[in-house]
Predict the structure of Sigma 54 transcriptional activator.
Amino acid sequence: MLLFGSKNILSRDVMSKDFILVEQNLSIEKCVEIMLEKNANDIFVKDSKGKVIGVFTLTDISMIKTIGAYDKSQPIKKYMNKYVITAGIESTLEECRNIMLENSIGVLPILEDKKIAGVIRSQQIRDFFYMKIEEVSMKLRHIIDSIHEAICVVDADGIVNIWNKNAERLYKMSSENIVGKSILDFFPDAAIAKVLKNRKEIENEYHSPRKDTHIVISALPIYINGEFIGVVSTDRDITEVRQLSQKLESANTKLSFLEDEVKRFSGSFGNIIGRSPKLIKKIEIARHVAKSDASIIITGESGTGKEVFARAIHEHSEKNGLFVPVNCSAIPGELFESELFGYDPGAFTGANKKGKMGIFELANGGTVFLDEIGDMPMHMQAKLLRVLQEKEIMRVGGEKKINIDARIISATHKNLKRMVEEGKFREDLFYRLNVVEIDLPSLKDRKEDILLLVEHFLKELCKKNNRNVPEIEKNVLMLLQNYEWKGNIRELKNTVEHLIVLNREDVVDMDIVPRYIVENVKTNEKKDEYPLDLAAAVETVEKNAIVRALEMAMGNKAKAAKILNIPRSTLYYKMENHGL
């Protein structure tokens, strides 16, 4: 057992160098004279090489005289105790103590290079340990007083042994007035009194000893070698924490309200960027259904931001769980079930020995986003339908059903209705998923958002690549706005990154714009050349002017009519004629 650090203290640090060492042929009479002269209780005997071969004590003299075998002229070697137990100079104090206890000896010679270097006596060890006990006791008192919690320790009879500084402060009771007295005389209903009675642990019990004071108490019975010896309680003052929590809760409520107000007036929705009428309409639908549990399917061309939209819906819902996206086109057919539902240990060859949590468990209380749902195998469509109907799953290789509360948002760029007609997608699952459909507009249908997106990606990617934000020439911006963007927002972002990475100046010019974009815009401009038929040319000019005015007015027809300098009724008439 480790006693006060004695395993770290060596014998050479504690041993006494005050010892007597005599030759083996010195007479017993002379040896006794030396011991009496130096007031020594023991004397060590050495051979001609200096090796300790015996020890002689005052107790040995008494025994020799008692048995009448004492001849004072005889050498000391005749009467010495030849069974000498020793320890090395590198031995620990703990080891020395154990040697002395096991052999019932009061003196232990310490050897260095087979010669005596010092002595450890039982009195030295007792003095050392008494000193350490006092030292440790003082340290413990300081430690207990420094602990933030109020600490009280009582014995088996309820007598207070320890009452630290924080207990004094918390309960307005000095240690002088309570230590040595029964806790029941002061706090008869305290948690520590309950544990004294039933000897059962109390953990984090709340109480308020006085107005505006809030305490959390834990109390534990103390056992040593199976014997109940008392109780220790720790009382934590959470008054300040509770007050801060209330202030924080109030601040959060106000902040949440202000955030909702800002979003309501700015039209922002998650990380979605744009203010085109078509996009705003989709945002309004998404915001309206976000707090419901309805399954949502998001459709649209690749790169239109379906996952961004799904995340925004999750963030504006009242779900506390995670948003977990799954790309159905990236999961091999044979792994679909284990990925979505998880598996138990040993479910199949190569499975994790601890098993694995599936997507639905991970998203419990949150949202599962099934991207490219049209690529889900037919056999998994049936299993997914069952999950949606029964609100529970079973892991692969498992027998226990797990309740699931997760909203499903799915997305696809495919025509699921046509897939249903062709027998490639389950009709019942389609209607389960398609409670609300949000069809995202392509970038070519929201050209007024292109420059907003360019600015956003420019700042985002410059920060990522540790670059200064460059200026983009107007002809480049016009080119980007007139390009078709078949890859939609994803293609636009990649193009902006291309411009940032290749740009070496403070201005982005036409030289680094990808050639296919330039050629595409030139081709489209040729297609837009006016026909030679004057009536047809006028019609084309009129239609283009109306489209441009509507874009500039962000879909506001009254503003567009003012830009065109025509009455609003005329604008409606011409829009209808041009099929706008």
About this structure: The longest strand covers residues 227-237. The mean pLDDT is 84. Residues 6-128 form a domain with the CBS-domain fold (CATH 3.10.580.10). The chain has five domains: 6-128, 147-266, 268-439, 443-527, 534-577.
